[in-house]
Write a structure and sequence with these properties.
The protein starts with a strand and ends with a helix. Strand 1, helix 1 and strand 2 form a beta-alpha-beta unit. It has 5 helices and 5 strands. Helix content is 44%, strand content 22%. Helix 1 packs across helix 5 and helix 2 runs parallel beside helix 3. By secondary structure, the protein is α/β, with parallel strands linked by helices. The chain has a single domain, classed as Response regulator (Rossmann fold, 3-Layer(aba) Sandwich), CATH 3.40.50.2300.
């Protein structure tokens, strides 16, 4: 079964950057999907059932925290969600637990760290 990663960010250049960081995984059979906001992320998650989601926080229509809450808490989907926050945004561990996120990551990020986190989340180590 093919594993899938959903990259969610309202900024196209950041979606592209994350995709470039993860492109090695495509050679290993992982599909990379993209969504530009929280609503599109919910639609994609419902139809594609990703194994891992990198979710930005601040987005139009539906922010990443609410989208994560829907996916993990309300729908009970069995996928890992990594919340990606801009430098300076502070999310507490209790907030991470409240929305169901598996990990918090800040921007800017190290591309190697992003790839390692994805490999670990998909159990590809």
């Amino acid at each position: 079964m093919t594993q899938k990663i959903l990259i969610v960010d309202d900024e196209a250049h950041l979606r592209y950057l994350v995709e470039q960081c993860l492109e090695d995984l495509e050679d290993e059979g992982v599909d990379l999907l993209q969504a530009k906001d929280g609503e599109e992320a919910l639609e994609c998650a419902k139809t594609e059932h990703p194994n891992l989601i990198f979710m930005d926080v601040m987005m139009p229509k539906l922010n990443g925290l609410d989208a994560c809450r829907h996916i993990k808490k309300e729908w009970g989907m069995n996928c890992k969600v990594i919340i990606v926050t801009a430098k300076g945004q502070i999310l507490e561990e209790c907030e991470k637990a409240e929305i169901g996120a598996d990990h918090l990551m800040s921007k800017p990020f190290d591309p190697a760290d992003l790839l390692n986190i994805a490999r670990e989340a998909l159990e590809m180590n």
